[in-house]
Amino acid sequence: xxxxxxxxxxxxxxxxxxxxxxxxxxxxxxxxxxxxxxxxxxxxxxxxxxxxxxxxxxxxxxxxxxxxxxxxxxxxxxxxxxxxxxxxxxxxxxxxxxxxxxxxxxxxxxxxxxxxxxxxxxxxxxxxxxxxxxxxxxxxxxxxxxxxxxxxxxxxxxxxxxxxxxxxxxxxxxxxxxxxxxxxxxxxxxxxxxxxxxxxxxxxxxxxxxxxxxxxxxxxxxxxxxxxxxxxxxxxxxxxxxxxxxxxxxxxxxxxxxxxxxxxxxxxxxxxxxxxxxxxxxxxxxxxxxxxxxxxxxxxxxxxxxxxxxxxxxxxxxxxxxxxxxxxxxxxxxxxxxxxxxxxxxxxxxxxxxxxxxxxxxxxxxxxxxxxxxxxxxxxxxxxxxxxxxxxxxxxxxxxxxxxxxxxxxxxxxxxxxxxxxxxxxxxxxxxxxxxxxxxxxxxxxxxxxxxxxxxxxxxxxxxxxxxxxxxxxxxxxxxxxxxxxxxxxxxxxxxxxxxxxxxxxxxxxxxxxxxxxxxxxxxxxxxxxxxxxxxxxxxxxxxxxxxxxxxxxxxxxxxxxxxxxxxxxxxxxxxxxxxxxxxxxxxxxxxxxxxxxxxxxxxxxxxxxxxxxxxxxxxxxxxxxxxxxxxxxxxxxxxxxxxxxxxxxx
Length: 651
What we know:
This protein is 19% helix and 34% strand. It is of the alpha/beta class.
């Protein structure tokens, strides 16, 4: 009797092991539309007429097994209802020549090594309606992909959706939906997926308890990728012509990569989402926004444009509400086709606009002054941005910033950046200990103190006033907040130096010092920017040949001046030459006067039109320069080079 019991105990676990290795669908039967199935070895084949429905007690496909669906056409549909209360796992192959649908209330996992191929795949971890099972679903569990799925259209939906594998819809679309349920409709020939309130269960009313799309180490590659979820974690790679994030409450994507011609972000209604897509490898050409955002951070390795969604309230008002924004490009220009404003001016607000190698193009400069802290970093700050404001607040600083690390740019800058700015801008003095007044043990205000205070000003022309408010820059007093700790104790120096150390400055900034400062930072030397603009206008060949056309002012009309140095034997020609020379001098004077006026107004468009036109192989003629171009050449021509050029001109 003992031996018999031992044999029974041994056979039970052996059966479970074999069942795990060999797991084709079980309890299968056609329930609508007809259809048959057969099994041969490790392959199970379903013959499925259009609109057929199969019910399965379980749907597991082990590694090495294959399930095939033979359909009458590429547009034929087949639905697989899975009754299992636990997750169905597919580790093998599933193939269909038409449209393949799964409804698994217990959840569905496409495991590592799985391969799914179909014309269209729609898999939901939930239930579907009998009449419109391809349009409406109610989610009750999770769905996960760790394998490889290829179809013209891929739709995965569940309470949570996780992708760690590869989803490929080369010329089609990928839709990932996480929440309580979804409704699929058609708009302008495209599928639109929405989380439907009518499909929310009592459990899903909490909203944030699930509705999470986790895009980890996998790859989503498609013409269009749409992620509809309250929360999105993006750690993988998305490659698409268009990427759409809808119903968003939170996106965490600094570790992920997005390659897209356009990225659309639709904020969840009546919410203020936090969106962080700061991956250094992102290549996003255009960002289209709809809604209001608490935090919004987007970075691209290529030129990027920010705009409002067509027909949205933002487009009509031309103003986007962002409490804390950060947009930056590592290459090319950052172009803003919409204005910004904070949701609340009472709470902390900030904006960072940065182009590492390009310019920052802003629609409404003055709107930026609504923010508590602003950093604009680009190669056009001195020539365009600083002059774009009707009037700069006194706590704004316009500075050279070629020494700053692009990755370290933050809304308030850090202590290291402040020191670098001081070294690069001799007129800037922000770290002297005598600039700080007040403290916990001295509750006097700056008006009561005779200690010097800092006055900030546009252009970086900060100066020390005597505390009476008569400084030429007219800046606000920087006063330590009352209470503990006091700035006096933070900045005391045992070495009796008159400058804060980096650690002391960090401590002082942590209690509010410089918290109201904004910076306009020139990323390249101004003369280098002028040279780049000159090259963009016609190339450096203008320096050594061709005609020189000069714009002396920022007006739409340009002053043209050219002379001929060709010798003439007739007095009439000599007279004409003298007249031309006189006209040249007059034009030069007028151009310089007009250019000086334009420089006072800092007209950014002038430099772009300094020189226009170039006749290839034409003789060198006498140029008429604007002051900027003249100064640039004077800096470029060393005495040796100048003497050499004179030798050529005398021939």
